[in-house]
């Protein structure tokens, strides 16, 4: 992450602060797992709220053929 931050924010005026903040992130396996769980719960709640408030919605389906000429439905 530090190498990526160093390259991504190369032209930013506050690059040192960004890299420093990246360096202090807690990225243990448990921390990452917990953050992903929180993000998933948030997305699920947002989707439920959107579905509750929508009047109409559409479904998009696709059918293609794989290399063995078998139809695949998505």
TrEMBL record:
<protein>
    <recommendedName>
        <fullName>Transposase</fullName>
    </recommendedName>
</protein>
């Amino acid at each position: 992450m530090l190498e990526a931050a160093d390259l991504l924010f190369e032209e930013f005026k506050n690059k040192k602060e960004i890299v420093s903040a990246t360096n202090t992130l807690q990225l243990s396996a448990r921390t990452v797992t917990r953050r992903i769980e929180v993000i998933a719960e948030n997305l699920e709640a947002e989707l439920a709220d959107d579905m509750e408030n929508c009047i109409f919605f559409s479904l998009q389906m696709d059918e293609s053929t794989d290399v063995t000429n078998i139809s695949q439905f998505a």
